[in-house]
Please model this.
Amino acid sequence: LREFATRLREFLPGEITIARVAGDVFAIAHAGVGDFVDIAQPLVEKILGACEPVIKVEGQEVRVYVKLGIAVFPGDGVNADTLFKNAEAALKKAKKSIEASVYYSPEMNAWVSESLALRNKLRRAIDEERFVLYFQPIHEIGSERICGAEALVRWNDPETGLVPQMQFIPLLEETGMILELGRWVLEKAIALHARWEKEGLNPPRISVNVSAIQLRHKGFINDVANAVDKGSGVGLDLEITESVMMEDVERNTTKLRSIRDMGLEIAIDDFGTGYSSLSYLAKLPINTLKIDRAFIMNLADNPNDMTLVSTIISLAHSLNLKVVAEGVETEGQSNLLKL
Model:
């Protein structure tokens, strides 16, 4: 019991309350859980992880098995007493079932089961490389030639077919699997560009989106360097959203300089939706500003959007930056951008 309690404290964040309430029963309370998948479910996994490896007591190995009953505010109770009682009721169900953890709410159990099934499915998809890259062309205003392409990842699910990235990228980010997929996308994009060059196709540069989790990761620069090393030359740009870039400007600037030194170019994605400081913008090692499609959609009908887009274009040109407008779908939008 003492060893298990020690492990719980080591495995769980300091703001969590842990108490032994009876015999071999422990109660754990965590306030401000917020998004369930992002915080509560990983918390359950950490508690289960406290049982591995086996616990040694006076030289003897003791294998501990844990059952969890879980109640979540406010659906399972709006005060501590109700939550505790409902967690106990869920624990009784868990002890009678083959599941390690059971939620008081049947709906929550079904939702968690579906979420875990999707996680496992994505895990297999990464291991089996069931992802493909689609390329969205970037046209040069005036000449209409294709001057670039944005790599968009799709999940080629054998059961449902191609799955758009917004249906699975958030879950990959929550679980950290985005790091593995991100490495694969970088390597695949560079490998494809190198192959097209070898075939004499004169391919345009390819841009790849970088998530906040990737940029924060300490091994990100190495991931980019390894991908570049595997390709014969570089025809790659990285896209980083404005809000992510501004999270830690100094550190991110250092990382981007290292990436620029490898021969890659940097674009600030969704520009105009964040809160960039113009003083920082002039110092960032970037090549391109991408105007968010939200400003392009109503360009012909909203004079304010037209003013904002014109201002962003003028700002970029004054800083010797290229500009990409996202989501241009009509000839009218294209003509307005030429003005």
Remarks:
- The radius of gyration is 25 Å.
- The mean pLDDT is 86.
- The chain is about 45% helix and 20% strand.
- The CA atoms of residues 8 and 50 lie 6 Å apart.
